[in-house]
């Protein structure tokens, strides 16, 4: 009896009946997931060096408010989500140039956004799955026009990052020196917040507002535990993010559960493994220093 | 040892790199300095001394175009200052970089050459060669590919000097670059800065509260205290009667074995315990 219950539970979490047919159904989601992995993985290291993890959370709550308002009004949910994200990102970018200010602004915005979102959802009379999906992610929701929108925005974010990559890295690591060199540090910072707002808005469509950090922060944090190379950090971070999202979708489609627990778990496990590897390496010391002279023992 | 006053040939014909004219800075009714005139010529090493709150950092900010003057003007290479410039090499206070920063030492140096350029951080062969050269000249070749955040404070500061000199700037602006370094690193870092100005004839404006590590290199001193300032060679400015007049209270300047110790500056200007190697009157 208990055994049978357990098996049911197991099937609900990992089901692989009619897997081929299901796979065809969620093809769009997998494509979308891979693209989001690319975006999240690329922007993540900048989120980390600019200390914006909390900002991502704040942006995602306002994005959620925008999306639920769009749901209530019957307009495009992605557009609503983007409107909310950009508003939050710009507010945080313009008002919060100092970390302490920024954190308090985010802490003020976040519950407000969440509250608004809950209000809009409570007023919404449509399918309740749509409501839950905004917070925790959904899997089969990506139809063709939506996919196109996600792809276009993602490509814009990636191009934007590539264009400002070097001055953005400089300004992120060493703001004062970059400013002294004449870099438009404030403009760069606001432009980055816009890209971050867009990236957050598209991520929400797959993993949901509450779990965006698993896509925009965890993969980069994991990569930064094992490498400090300016080339391998984004590459690894992208690899981790794509693995988490696509892997999560592939595991999720068999069972009837939302996709996000799978994504967040894979992402978390990758982080744990990277931490262990990083810690082992720290203990061994020597991070690529050349010996001062030939070492003889 | 090297106490001759004219170490650097200063020709009056050389256009000043930095020209400060009738500059006044006041916050409300608190005036930091009034009518400040200063020309810094190519190859000249000017130390800006004074205690906290006398406007040393504000002066740097004004040169970087981040602080508006109440009156007067500052020109860099004949043009009014803008918000930062590629002709400036800026060396900030030693501040540890965040653990996990995804940059190696050589990437930080490369920013000094092409950090302003848009695009992906791919460096041309010429840039890579220049980075190698700079790393060698600051003695950092051994840790060129090490993550910057894992370097010690002294090593990071060498990399910052490398970054500042990599673009061969005409003016090196140093904001307390020796702070929190041990004596050995203080000497090494200040020698690196001095070598660079000799090699490229760059002007140096060096803000510090302790003149001793750079005493042998300084051509002129700008001393700020109590809303007043004095400009001259160290021998002209760092004298008991001059500082006493500035502080309005008896101050004694003691020279001992090539070091300068300032004693008896008012309490507000902070006495300091490490008399041996600090200008005491200028302590925070």
From TrEMBL, chain A:
<dbReference type="GO" id="GO:0055085">
    <property type="term" value="P:transmembrane transport"/>
</dbReference>
<dbReference type="GO" id="GO:0010043">
    <property type="term" value="P:response to zinc ion"/>
</dbReference>
<feature type="transmembrane region" description="Helical">
    <location>
        <begin position="69"/>
        <end position="92"/>
    </location>
</feature>
<keyword id="KW-1133">Transmembrane helix</keyword>
<protein>
    <submittedName>
        <fullName>Metal ABC transporter permease</fullName>
    </submittedName>
</protein>
<feature type="transmembrane region" description="Helical">
    <location>
        <begin position="147"/>
        <end position="168"/>
    </location>
</feature>
<comment type="similarity">
    <text>Belongs to the ABC-3 integral membrane protein family.</text>
</comment>
<feature type="transmembrane region" description="Helical">
    <location>
        <begin position="229"/>
        <end position="253"/>
    </location>
</feature>
<feature type="transmembrane region" description="Helical">
    <location>
        <begin position="30"/>
        <end position="48"/>
    </location>
</feature>
<keyword id="KW-0812">Transmembrane</keyword>
<feature type="transmembrane region" description="Helical">
    <location>
        <begin position="188"/>
        <end position="217"/>
    </location>
</feature>
<keyword id="KW-0472">Membrane</keyword>
<dbReference type="InterPro" id="IPR001626">
    <property type="entry name" value="ABC_TroCD"/>
</dbReference>
<keyword id="KW-0813">Transport</keyword>
<dbReference type="GO" id="GO:0043190">
    <property type="term" value="C:ATP-binding cassette (ABC) transporter complex"/>
</dbReference>
<dbReference type="Pfam" id="PF00950">
    <property type="entry name" value="ABC-3"/>
</dbReference>
<feature type="transmembrane region" description="Helical">
    <location>
        <begin position="259"/>
        <end position="280"/>
    </location>
</feature>
<dbReference type="InterPro" id="IPR037294">
    <property type="entry name" value="ABC_BtuC-like"/>
</dbReference>
<feature type="transmembrane region" description="Helical">
    <location>
        <begin position="104"/>
        <end position="126"/>
    </location>
</feature>
UniProtKB/TrEMBL annotation, chain B:
<feature type="domain" description="ABC transporter">
    <location>
        <begin position="18"/>
        <end position="251"/>
    </location>
</feature>
<dbReference type="InterPro" id="IPR017871">
    <property type="entry name" value="ABC_transporter-like_CS"/>
</dbReference>
<protein>
    <submittedName>
        <fullName>ATP-binding cassette domain-containing protein</fullName>
    </submittedName>
</protein>
<dbReference type="InterPro" id="IPR003439">
    <property type="entry name" value="ABC_transporter-like_ATP-bd"/>
</dbReference>
<dbReference type="InterPro" id="IPR003593">
    <property type="entry name" value="AAA+_ATPase"/>
</dbReference>
<dbReference type="Pfam" id="PF00005">
    <property type="entry name" value="ABC_tran"/>
</dbReference>
<keyword id="KW-0547">Nucleotide-binding</keyword>
<keyword id="KW-0813">Transport</keyword>
<keyword id="KW-0067">ATP-binding</keyword>
<dbReference type="GO" id="GO:0005524">
    <property type="term" value="F:ATP binding"/>
</dbReference>
<dbReference type="InterPro" id="IPR050153">
    <property type="entry name" value="Metal_Ion_Import_ABC"/>
</dbReference>
<comment type="similarity">
    <text>Belongs to the ABC transporter superfamily.</text>
</comment>
<dbReference type="GO" id="GO:0016887">
    <property type="term" value="F:ATP hydrolysis activity"/>
</dbReference>
<dbReference type="InterPro" id="IPR027417">
    <property type="entry name" value="P-loop_NTPase"/>
</dbReference>
